[in-house]
């Protein structure tokens, strides 16, 4: 009987799964629009009262996208005031929409990777999964690892698309 050989296991390929870097905390939007007078004007006194009396605990351990969906001029300090209330409560907060928040969460998570661990290795960046990984995360992991790896492929170890191979 002929022995079955697992060529994928012998290939030296390392699978890198971006889902491992997915922050599982809930994502929510804080829209300053709700604090504007007539949906257009930020009244400092009213806004400061809102910030003082709002239940910020509702954002405990959540990831917040702080934004203003109204076509209004909101002073920068207003966003900073919100950030001051979220500090120590929210898991993470960021100025922008939910897509920007997702990109920022991955940027933050991937910045902690020890790229030296992948030096001279062959990588497969896992493509399909169950969690929403933004394209930005694939670009970011490529940017971080291209200087050190021998090769990068995309997909699954049994079916990959070549992306990069270091020239010898």
Number of helices: 5
Domains counted in the coordinates: how many?
A: 2
Question: Can you give the helix content as a percent range?
Answer: 25-40%
Structural class: alpha/beta
Report the sheet with the most strands, covering strand number, pairing sense and barrel closure.
4 strands, mixed
- Poorly predicted parts: 5-10
Rg estimate, integer Å: 22 Å
User: Reading side by side through the largest sheet, how are the strands ordered?
Assistant: 1-5-6-7
Describe the structure.
- The protein folds into 2 domains: 7-23 and 113-165, no CATH class; 27-90, no CATH class.
- 29% of the residues lie in helices and 21% in strands.
- β5 (122-126), α5 (135-145) and β6 form a beta-alpha-beta unit.
- The protein has a 4-stranded mixed β-sheet with strand order 1-5-6-7. It has a 3-stranded parallel β-sheet with strand order 2-3-4, with helices on both faces.
- The chain is built from 5 helices and 7 strands, in the order αββαβαβαβαββ.
- The protein is of the alpha/beta class.
- It has helices at 7-10, 44-53, 76-86, 98-110, 135-145; strands spanning 13-16, 27-31, 63-67, 92-95, 122-126, 151-156, 159-165.
- The protein is elongated and about 80 Å long.
């Amino acid at each position: 009987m002929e022995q079955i050989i697992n060529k994928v296991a012998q290939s030296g390929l390392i699978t890198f799964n971006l889902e491992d870097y997915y922050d599982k905390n809930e994502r929510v939007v804080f829209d300053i629009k709700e604090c504007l007078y007539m949906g257009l004007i930020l009244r400092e006194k009213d806004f400061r009262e809102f910030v003082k009396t709002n239940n910020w605990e509702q954002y405990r351990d959540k990831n917040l996208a702080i934004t203003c969906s109204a076509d209004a001029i909101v002073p920068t300090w207003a966003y900073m005031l919100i950030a001051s209330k979220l500090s120590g409560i929210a898991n993470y907060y960021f100025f922008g929409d939910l897509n920007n928040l997702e990109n920022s969460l991955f940027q933050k998570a991937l910045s902690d990777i020890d790229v030296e661990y992948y030096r001279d290795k062959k990588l497969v960046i896992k493509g399909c999964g169950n969690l929403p990984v933004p394209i930005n995360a694939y670009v970011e992991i490529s940017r971080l690892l291209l200087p050190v790896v021998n090769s990068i492929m995309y997909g699954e170890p049994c079916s990959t698309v070549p992306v990069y191979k270091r020239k010898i």
